[in-house]
Amino acid sequence: MSEYVYSNGVILPLTEACISPYDRGFLLGDGIFETIMACNGSLLFLNAHLSRLKKGLQDLDFRTASLQEFFEDINGDLISRLIKKNKLQETSARVRITISRGTFAGGLAPPADSKPTVIICAAPIDTKFIAEKNKKGISAITIGGIRPALPGVKSLNFMANIMGANMANKAGAGEGFFIAEDKKTVLEGTSSNIFILRAGVLQSTPAAAEPGGPGALAGVVRDIVLQMAAEAGLAAEEKWFTINDLLKAEEVFITNSISGIVPVIEVDSKPIADRKKGSITEKLQKNYEKKTSYFLLEKRK
Fold first, then answer.
1. What distance in Å separates the CA atoms of residue 215 and residue 227, rounded to the nearest whole number?
2. How far apart are CA 233 and CA 164, in angstroms?
3. Phi, psi angle pair for 296, to nearest 5°
4. What is the mean pLDDT of the segment spanning 133-147?
5. What is the rounded CA–CA span in Å between residue 31 and residue 158?
6. Is the distance from CB of 255 to CB of 261 less than 8 angstroms?
7. DSSP three-state, residue 54
8. What is the DSSP string of 59-111?
């Protein structure tokens, strides 16, 4: 847990940070967030995360003009100062940016003069646990009947994701896969994007083109994997697939910004291939490691 946090323009001790009891993020889930991986003080793919954050704010009709100074600070050394304050500059950390629409004025429609609340936290990551997952793989379950409140937007309304993660945890699985209302189409994980390999072709659920539209969240690592596949000459496409496709896949893996690329070796207690990490997954993991290492090297120049 962070010892220091950024709160509305100031870095201060966690014990001194607070939000209004009337904050719309707290009361209504009216807000958005980003989670970014930091390695030895450098943020992985910051620009991609900030682009998605800004798009989400626009999609939710936030008053982005009032956040201009914040984004200028973000592009400066704000997060680096926060990381150093928490003594995380020589390790791996999870940095979370949370923006709510500000205080509640009664009713659901936001007031025209609302001033966003901005909080940033930085906390250490259990890299050994992540390395173990990436090496051995995880199991997953499928989840029907619920799905993210606003597909395509990383909103604070995360109840479906929480319920799904809890269901997966109770089942002894590492992730839960949301299934569409047709009870067969695979959407996304509770905190990840899903890839399958079938007939040598890599497939990922299409990203939602608009808030609430059909599709998955456009994950930062998901987009990087699609790019790496193209660079490696591996056929890849954004295409809908079913539970049956998933279970018959040659390989399955998930992606997110903290864990990177994680093999899935079992779904609903049924094996994926031979319950071992596939060669394409391993190749992409190695390429991703190279890409992140190069990215961090360039950041230090």
1. 19
2. 35
3. -65, -35
4. 95
5. 11
6. yes
7. helix
8. HTT--GGGGHHHHHHHTTTHHHHHHHHTT-TTSEEEEEEEEE--B--SSSSPP
Q: Could you tell me the pTM of the whole model?
A: 0.94
* Residues in Cβ contact with 181 at an 8 Å cutoff, skipping those fewer than 6 apart: none
Residue 293's CB is within 10 A of a number of other CB atoms, namely 11
The three-point CA angle 112-113-119 to 5° equals 115
Per-residue pLDDT tens digits for 42-52: 999 999 999 99
Q: Which amino acid is at 281?
A: T
Residue ranges of the chain that CATH labels 3.20.10.10 = 130-297
* Whether domain 130-297 has CATH 3.20.10.10: yes
State the span(s) of the chain assigned CATH 3.30.470.10: 4-125
CATH of domain 4-125: 3.30.470.10
User: 295 pLDDT band (50/70/90 cuts)?
Assistant: low
